[in-house]
Amino acid sequence: MIAAKKAKKGNGVVAAIDVEENHTIAVVMPSTALGNGTDSEECVAPLQTPHLHWDCLVTGPAVSSPVQISTLIDHGSSLVLIDEDFTWKLSLWLRTLSTPLPVTLALSPKQKQSFRLSHYDTNYDLLRPQPPTAPANKTASWGPELFWAKKNVVRELNKVLPELKAIMDDKCETVWEFDVIGVINAQIDSLHQQTLLAAKDKAMKDEFRHRFPVDIPHNDSLPCNVLFRVQLKDTNQIVQKCSYDCPKKYHAAWKVLLDSHVESGCLKHLESEFSSLAFIIPKADPTVLPQWVNNFQLLNLNTVPDNHPLPRIDEILKDCVKGKFFGKIDMTNAFFQTQQYTCLGENMSGP
After folding, report:
1. How is domain 214-347 classified at the architecture level of CATH?
2. What domain of life does the native source organism fall in (predicted)?
3. Tens of pLDDT along 2-31?
4. Where exactly are the structural domains of the chain?
5. Start-to-end CA span in the chain (Å)
6. Within a 13 Å sphere around the CA of 11, how many CA atoms are in the beta-carbon half?
7. Helix boundaries (H) for 9-143
8. Nearest to 21 by CA among 1, 3, 46
9. Are residues 3 and 104 in contact, defined by beta-carbon separation less than 8 angstroms?
10. Measured at the alpha carbon of residue 26, what is the angle toward residues 21 and 30, in degrees to the nearest 5?
C-alpha cells in the first residue's frame, strides 16, 4: 500500500488508489489551468501509468553468484524498501534504527498514535528481573460440615490407634542403642585372632621347614629309588611342529624360569631329536613369574600308557571328605622333580 499525505487545509481533495504491482498511483486534483477536463479538449495526463522497472544484479553473503531481480524506480516513498523474503535469501543483516521513525498513512485518524516497529516489548528485563513476590495467603472458609467431619475423624483415630499400637508392640523387637564399646571389643578380638593365626602359621612352617622349601630343591637331593621311565611305541618317529612365538617382554621372565631349573638339575642340555613345545601364560599379578606349560600332546600319542593312571574323581572326593584341614599346593614344578631312568637319556625330551 502506498500512502500520500493529506493537504493541510483547502478545498483540494486528494485521492489514494491501491492498485496491483504492475501499476502506479495517480494523484487527481482540480487544476486551475485545465479545469475538470470538460471545458478543454487538450491532452490530459492519463489516470494510470505503468511502473518504471529496472532489471539489475544484486549479491549477498548467502549467494555465490549475483541474482537478477526487477526493482521499482521512484515509487514515491522516502525509504528504500526491500522485500523481507529477499532479505533472508541474501542473508542481509537486520539492524534496529538509531532513532524512531514516524510513519503516517493517508487515511490515518487525526489523533496521533505512537508505536514501535522493531520488536514487541513485554516490559520485562531478562537481565535484571524483579524479585519474585510471595503468593498471597488465602484463608479457606471452612464450612460447618467439614468442621464436624474433622472432629469425627480425630475421635475415631483416638479410639483405633491405641489398639493397633498394642498389636504392633507385640510383633516388634526392642531396638537397643548402638554399643560403641562392644564394636571396639569385637574389632580387638578380630585383630588378636589374625595375629595369633599368623604366629601359628610361622611356627608350623619353621617346624616343617624341610617340607616348605623356598625354591625347587636340587635334583641330587631327591630320592632316587623311584624313577620315571618312558616307553615309546615307535623309537624312530620324530615329532615336527612349529614352535610358539613369545613376546619380547616375556623373554626375561622365561630365562629366569629356565635358569632356575637348570641350576636345580631338573633340566639338562641334550642333543636329542625329541622336543616338546613350550609356552608361558602370564598371571594376573605382573610381579609374579608366568606359568610354564609344556605341550606333550604329540609325544604322548607315541608313548605306552602308564599302568598306574591317576585316581578317579570319585576316589579323590572320598579322600577329601575324610580330611579336616584343607590347603592348596602349586604343582607346577612337580613334574620336573620326578627323576628319569638314566639309560633312557637318548629318549628324553626338553623344551
Report:
1. Roll (3.10)
2. Eukaryota
3. 333 444 444 444 444 444 444 434 444 444
4. 1-122, 180-210, 214-347
5. 102
6. 3
7. 84-90
8. 1
9. yes
10. 165
